[in-house]
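Hi, here's the filled form for the chain we discussed.

Project: internal
Contact: R.S.
Residues: 232
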Amino acid sequence: MQFTKSLIKGKLIKRYKRFFVDVKINKQIVTAHCPNTGSMKGLLDEGNEVYLLKNNNPKRKLKYGLEIIKAKKNLVGVNTHMANKIVSHGLSNNLIKELENNDTIKSEVFFNKETRFDFLIEKNNQKNFVEVKNVTLFRDEKTAEFPDAITSRGSKHLLTLIDAIKKGYKAYLIFLVQIQNMEKFKIAKDIDREYYKNYLAAKKAGVNFLAYRCKISSKEILIEKKLKIKND
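And the returned structure, exactly as it came back:
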C-alpha cells in the first residue's frame, strides 16, 4: 500500500484522549488524529520520531493523521485502518503463500448478525474467512507480540472462527506485524491470558494462524516476510 502523498516527519510530544497526538514539526506544534484505539504499549515515548499524513479535506478538523512511529530504531505502522488495505493488496498480489491464487476476494463479510470478518475468499469452491489483527507490540529486538492490552473483542473473533469451521468454512487469522526487523511472533499471554486460552482452543479446532511482517517506509507499507509463531 503506497501512501497517497509524502509523509511529514516530526517528534512526538504526547498522546491523549486516545484519538489525539501532539507532534512538533520543525518549530510548530500540531495536533494530529491517532487512528489507533489500542494501548500502543512501548511506542509513545516523548521525542520518538513520527510520520504524519497531511489531509487537505476542508471538512476535517485535524489536518494531519499519524501513520508511523519510530521506536527503539524500528519503524512501526500504527494506523489500524491500513491493516486491511495492506492484507487486501497482499491477497491480490499473492504475497501470502497460504492464500494464493484466489477465485474471489470479498471484504467485510458478515458471518452472523453480530460478527463480520475482514475477508471472505473463495478458491476451488472452498470458502475461507480471514480475520486480520494489526501488531505493533515488541518487547525484545526480534519478537512481535499480540495483544498489547486485554481484548475481549479479539477473543470473540477467535470463538466465532471456531464456529465458522463447524459450519464448513476454513478459517484464517493473520497477525499483520507492522514492525521492522521482527523475526518471530508470539501471543502475549502475560497481557491477556484469556486470549491465549482461546488462541489454543482455536488452533486445536483448526483455525490457521499466520504471522507476516511488513516492509515499512515513508512511501509505502507492504507484506514482506512470513514469521514463525513461537507459541506453536
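Let me know if anything looks off before we file it.
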